[in-house]
Design a protein that fits this description.
The protein folds into 2 domains: about 10-30 and about 310-415, Alpha-Beta Complex (Aspartate Aminotransferase, domain 1); about 50-310, Type I PLP-dependent aspartate aminotransferase-like (Major domain) (Aspartate Aminotransferase, domain 2, 3-Layer(aba) Sandwich), CATH 3.40.640.10. The protein has 14 helices and 13 strands. The chain has helices at about 10-20, 45-65, 70, 75-80, 100-110, 130-140, 145-150, 160-165, 190-200, 220-225, 295-310, 310-335, 360-370, 395-410, and strands at about 35, 95, 120-125, 150, 175-180, 205-210, 225-230, 245-250, 340, 355, 370-375, 375, 380-385. Catalyzes the cleavage of L-kynurenine (L-Kyn) and L-3-hydroxykynurenine (L-3OHKyn) into anthranilic acid (AA) and 3-hydroxyanthranilic acid (3-OHAA), respectively. Its EC number is 3.7.1.3. Its cofactor is pyridoxal 5'-phosphate.
Length: about 425
């Protein structure tokens, strides 16, 4: 899409005045003298989220175990609120555990190797927890990782080659696990195309949505993946370690979950405490242990905002404000050695911009001391996420001014290149 931007501060301020999402910024705990650009790693706290957490604490105080009479179905409630973000049926989504534990659950279900089909296909640049889980499951099934994990290598270390993925869908592949948005380059892969190609060959395929959910629009009724997993503390603003999402396509509801636990038992007989597992035949049947209600409560408040707005409006602003940031990088920062490693094409760009510089780590450290919160990813990427719900255009402009100053005045030279910080 063609857009016209300007380089002045006045232009940024005018964009903020015209932004029909600007009222939602007031719902977040914006810190004075700080510009938060790391919502792709941990979203900011919102007032609705904190209110729901406070309400849950009060229920614990005042009701004790009596609250469990409805809270034992809380994961189903949150799942139904989250389902619209991927255009899935409410009973295809549940909230449980972490991304990694949900990968283990999905693979324990769908990876049933045979003599001819025994490989799991992955890429080599996804977030490593996915690979750790894949390797673990393969070992549990008695295979060598080198033999049973098929790795499709990136041609450049930044982007996945979809043609290579399809070419790798050979008869020995049982399951494929891929990211939807790459954490390092913000690349969006074509889930629909890859799912269709996998299914033509009798291969199950699942997606990691961690850097996609709440940032881009997705339509699982169209894509029809077999499963998907995601965290909820990035763009969904669920807070530290908030419970993760798990999608199971309804065509697989009859399958037995690979990992059984009492919260996957039928609701009707769960508290009869029978010794034989009775599978609840929807996504909630893939739950394992007792839900972490305090880690779900903030999500209820956050999802109310998402469902009020709808993903199309959120995505529209996200695309515009990330394009604005890239424009400023092109016009103001390139002469100082900056570039970006993500696509400029809307359909291929997630919700963050991957700023690159040879001194990225030291620049990121200097940014933090100059009131900007970014994150750093090896070897040379500073991820900047202008979040549609709470980042202003003026803040984007000011971040670029600070980035220019840090290199122009060589402020980064005051910092060690030895990595000590998390972000």
């Amino acid at each position: 899409m063609s857009r016209t931007f300007e380089t002045s501060l006045e232009y940024a301020k005018e964009q903020d005045k015209q932004d029909d999402l600007r009222k939602y910024r007031d719902l977040f705990y914006i810190q004075e003298d700080s510009i938060y650009m790391d919502g792709n790693s941990l979203g900011m706290a919102s007032k609705p989220a904190v209110e729901k957490l406070d309400e849950m604490v009060n229920r614990w105080k005042n009701e004790g175990v009596i609250a469990w009479n409805d809270l034992y179905l809380y994961a189903e409630k949150i799942g139904s609120m989250m389902a619209p973000l991927v255009n899935a049926d409410a009973d295809e989504v549940t909230i449980v555990g972490s991304t990694t534990s949900n990968i283990h659950q999905a693979l324990a279900t769908f990876y049933q190797p045979t003599e001819k089909r025994y490989k799991i296909m992955v890429d080599d640049i996804n977030f490593p927890t996915d690979r750790y889980a894949v390797d673990s499951i393969v070992r549990l099934k008695g295979y060598d990782v080198e033999e049973a994990v098929k790795v499709i290598k990136s041609p450049d270390g930044e982007f996945i080659d979809e043609e290579a993925i399809i070419a790798g869908m050979t008869d020995d592949v049982a399951v494929i696990l891929l990211p939807t948005v790459l954490y390092r380059s913000a690349q969006i892969i074509d889930m629909k195309r890859l799912a269709e190609e996998a299914h033509k060959r009798g291969i199950y395929i699942g997606f990691d949505l961690c850097h996609a959910i709440g940032a881009i629009e997705m339509d699982f009724k169209e894509v029809q993946p077999d499963f998907a997993v995601w965290c909820t503390y990035k763009y969904l603003n669920g807070g530290f370690g908030s419970c993760a999402g798990l999608y199971i396509n309804r065509k697989h509801f009859e399958m037995m979950p690979g990992l059984n636990g009492w919260f996957g038992n039928k609701n009707a007989t769960q508290f009869q405490l029978k010794q034989e597992f009775e599978h609840e035949k929807n996504a909630s049947g893939w739950q394992i242990g007792t839900p972490s209600v305090f880690n779900m409560a903030p999500l209820e408040g956050s999802l109310e905002v998402f469902n009020e707005l709808g993903m199309p409006r959120i995505r529209e602003k996200s695309l515009h404000i990330t394009a604005y940031l890239m424009y400023l990088i092109d016009t103001k920062l390139k002469k100082f050695g900056y570039s970006y490693g993500n696509s400029t094409v809307d359909e291929k760009r997630g919700g963050h911009v991957c700023l690159q510089h040879d001194e990225a780590y030291r620049i990121a450290a200097a940014l933090r001391d100059n009131g900007v919160v970014p994150d750093f990813r090896e070897p040379n990427v500073i991820r900047l996420a202008p979040i549609a719900l709470y980042t202003s255009y003026e803040e984007v402009y000011l971040v670029v001014e600070i980035l220019e100053k840090i290199v122009k005045e060589k402020i980064y030279e005051n910092y060690s290149a030895e990595r000590t910080a998390v972000v």
